[in-house]
């Protein structure tokens, strides 16, 4: 996951909202690609849940590494993503992510049952 302590959003808000692949520029100006899983809110602070961008066919999708970046809105409307998320907050974010994935899985199961 990200090694630098902050990233600048290279793409616009629409790309982030699309929950697809995004490119971030690290503090040394290097472009890095990530897959935006979702945005979570915890104690009125927003966090990106990201995983390294994978080529199709790479690794088992059930075994991905997830990291979180804190969204720090800037006065000019851009965002800076910081990886200074305390471990206790990371634990809470993983719990929320797990709950959301369980809810999504339950909805998929119910939809499959309705189709039969």
Roughly how much helix do the residues carry, as a percent range?
25-40%
Number of strands: 6
Radius of gyration: 16 Å
Q: pLDDT under 50 segments (min length 5)?
A: 1-11
CA distance, first residue to last residue: 41 Å
Structural class by secondary-structure content:
alpha+beta
Total DSSP helices: 2
Overall shape: globular
Question: What features would you describe in this structure?
Answer:
- The protein has helices spanning 13-17, 87-115; strands at residues 6-9, 21-26, 31-42, 45-52, 67-73, 79-82.
- It is an alpha+beta fold.
- It has a domain at 6-85.
- The protein has a six-stranded antiparallel barrel with strand order 1-2-3-4-5-6.
- Residues 1-11 have low confidence and may be disordered.
List keywords for this structure.
6-stranded antiparallel β-barrel; alpha+beta; disordered N terminus; globular; 116 residues
Brief summary:
The chain is α+β, with helices and mostly antiparallel strands and 116 residues long. Helices cover 29% and strands 35% of the residues.
Please specify the SSE layout and strand pairing.
Blueprint: E1 6-9, H1 13-17, E2 21-26, E3 31-42, E4 45-52, E5 67-73, E6 79-82, H2 87-115
């Amino acid at each position: 996951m990200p090694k630098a302590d902050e990233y600048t959003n290279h793409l616009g808000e629409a790309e982030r909202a699309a929950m697809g692949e995004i490119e971030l520029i690290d503090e040394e100006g290097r472009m890095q690609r990530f897959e935006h899983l979702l945005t979570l809110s915890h104690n009125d602070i927003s966090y990106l849940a990201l995983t390294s961008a994978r080529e199709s066919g790479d690794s088992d999708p059930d075994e991905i590494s997830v990291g979180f970046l804190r969204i720090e809105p800037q006065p000019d409307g851009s965002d800076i993503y910081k990886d200074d998320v305390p471990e206790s907050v990371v634990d809470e974010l993983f719990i929320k992510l797990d709950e959301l994935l369980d809810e999504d899985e339950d909805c998929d199961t119910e939809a499959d049952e309705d189709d039969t």
